[in-house]
Request: fold
Amino acid sequence: MRDFKQAYLFTLALVLFTALGFSGGVLLSPRLQLAGGEWPILHQAYQILVDNGFKPAPQSPGLEYGMIRGMVQAYDDPYTQFVEPIVSHRSNR
Reply:
């Protein structure tokens, strides 16, 4: 009976810590997005492009893919590359 109680309490603690970790990630995720605080130079360059560009800035995901390509290029590793996902264009017939 004592082994059952220990196993039950251990499982309960594990579930509680998992739930707390998941909840913390969900609550903090908006802060981790590109808001200028985490990547101020990137945010400033984006604002300059949007405010002063001769044509509209590319829409997502194209803009995001370009940012990723730039990061991978700056990483300067010949074995690291970014491959854009293949999007199928189906016609509605």
